[in-house]
Structure formats: structure tokens, C-alpha cells
């Protein structure tokens, strides 16, 4: 917060308060409660990678806390749930109440790009300077999965690729879901087709293996986390609208 002073034409001094967060986010929509979830997700990701870089071995009978950390994807999954929750809210709000602002695709994609592209490309540039691995960095710049081809720097890049895939699919799904009966039925049909394919792969153990990085890391495999976030957002809005 910054305080600034000025004078009116009559000479009276006026002190105003400037919130540095103004313009960065809509404070009326900002959910401070989710900061705890973000912090937990960050901590879990940090501890997992710190554990991996150490020489410590997981005990044969680990505690629940160690199992949570060693699971690896716990923190990342929580981030995906948060993305599903937060990014679907504007569409769900507008669908529930037409007086709420309608999400604009241009503003949506601009916000998503500004959130991840600048820092991600800086990381890619530093990786290229340190490794000289032009081919891998070029593929990563196009948001392709590169796995461990620029180890250790590329270990976490897959999460951004998955997020970008979700960013592209979410508006399509939200528009179909909120445009009426037939578009919603089409959306349901697509979800059922995905669920059938997903269940088939799970039953045959493909998603539990490391045979296909695309299958295990893409939005196809991580969709349950995003869907949990979206469904949670819908339930949360219903609870807010319910009479006290």
C-alpha cells in the first residue's frame, strides 16, 4: 500500500491510498483462501525435488507425510485442480447469472500468455546458454514434451505443456457447456468418450507405466485433476447462491 497526498482547488489536503495489487487482479474476485492451497502445492513440489536430489532413501514403511512427498505428483496435481477451479469460474459465473461479466477469449489468452510465457522463455534461454541444446530448447519453446532431454532443467517443463493444453481446451468445453442443450450434450458425449479411453488405458496399465510420456503427462491423462477443480467450482458457486 502507498499513501499519496494532494490538494483540492480550495487548498484542502487529501490523502488517498493506492493499492499496488490494483490492476494486477480483481480484488473482488480474488480468493485469498486459496493461497494456502498454492503454498502447500509449492511446498510439496519443492520437497519432492529436494528429496530426489538428496541421497536419502525412502524407508520400507514410510510415514504418511513421506509418502505424500515421495508421491511426486501430489503438488502438481493440486496445481492442476486449482487451475481447473479458478479458470472455469468466470464461465460458470456467467452461465449462472447473465449479469456477470462474460469471459472474453482475447483477454483470457492474453492473461494466460503473460502468466507463463515470459518467465518460461527466460528459463529456456538460460538452459540454452548453459547446455547448448538447441533442438530440445526449440521444441520446448513450442510447448512440446521434451522429458529429460535437457536434464536437470527440463524436468519440470512438462507441467507447463500440460497447462497450455488445458488453457486451449477449457474455452471450448466451457462454451459447449454453457451454450444450450445440444452443445452441452456434445460436451457430455466428448467427456464420455474420453472417460472410456482413459478407463481402457488404466485397465491395461498404460498410464501406470513410463512407456508413453505423452499419455502419462498430457492433459489427456491429467484431465481428472482439472475436472475435479471445475466440478468443485460449480459446487462452490451453487453453495454461494443457496439461500442462507
TrEMBL record:
What are the Acyltransferase domain coordinates in residue numbering?
33-240
Keyword Repeat (UniProt): no
The UniProt GO MF terms for this protein read: acyltransferase activity, transferring groups other than amino-acyl groups
Highest taxon listed in the record's lineage: Bacteria
> Would you tell me the protein name for this molecule?
Acyltransferase 3 domain-containing protein
Q: Which Pfam families match?
A: Acyl_transf_3
Positions of transmembrane segments: 36-54, 66-92, 113-130, 150-170, 182-203, 223-240
Could you name the Gene Ontology cellular component terms for this entry?
Answer: membrane
> Is Transmembrane helix included in the keywords of this UniProt record?
yes
Q: Which UniProt keywords apply?
A: Membrane, Transmembrane, Transmembrane helix
Any GO BP annotation: polysaccharide biosynthetic process
The organism encoding this protein is Haliea salexigens
Amino acid at each position: 500500500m502507498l499513501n499519496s497526498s494532494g490538494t483540492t482547488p480550495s487548498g484542502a489536503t487529501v490523502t488517498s491510498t493506492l493499492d499496488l495489487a490494483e490492476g494486477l487482479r480483481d480484488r473482488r474476485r480474488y480468493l485469498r483462501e486459496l493461497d494456502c492451497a498454492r503454498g502447500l502445492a509449492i511446498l510439496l513440489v519443492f520437497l519432492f525435488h529436494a528429496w530426489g536430489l538428496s541421497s536419502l532413501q525412502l524407508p520400507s514403511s514410510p510415514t504418511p507425510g513421506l509418502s505424500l512427498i515421495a508421491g511426486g505428483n501430489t503438488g502438481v496435481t493440486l496445481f492442476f485442480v486449482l487451475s481447473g477451479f479458478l479458470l472455469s469460474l468466470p464461465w460458470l459465473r456467467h452461465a449462472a447469472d447473465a449479469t456477470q461479466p462474460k469471459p472474453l477469449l482475447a483477454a483470457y489468452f492474453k492473461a494466460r500468455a503473460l502468466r507463463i510465457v515470459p518467465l518460461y522463455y527466460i528459463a529456456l534461454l538460460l538452459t540454452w546458454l548453459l547446455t547448448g541444446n538447441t533442438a530440445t530448447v526449440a521444441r520446448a519453446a513450442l510447448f512440446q514434451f521434451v522429458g529429460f532431454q535437457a536434464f536437470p532443467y527440463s524436468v519440470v517443463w512438462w507441467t507447463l505443456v500440460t497447462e497450455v493444453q488445458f488453457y486451449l481446451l477449457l474455452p471450448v468445453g466451457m462454451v459447449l457447456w454453457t451454450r444450450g442443450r445440444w452443445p452441452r450434450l456434445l460436451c457430455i458425449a466428448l467427456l464420455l468418450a474420453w472417460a472410456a479411453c482413459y478407463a481402457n488405458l488404466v485397465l491395461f496399465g498404460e498410464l501406470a507405466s513410463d512407456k508413453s510420456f505423452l499419455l502419462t503427462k498430457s492433459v489427456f491423462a491429467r484431465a481428472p485433476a482439472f475436472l475435479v477443480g471445475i466440478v468443485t467450482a460449480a459446487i462452490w458457486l451453487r453453495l454461494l447462491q443457496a439461500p442462507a
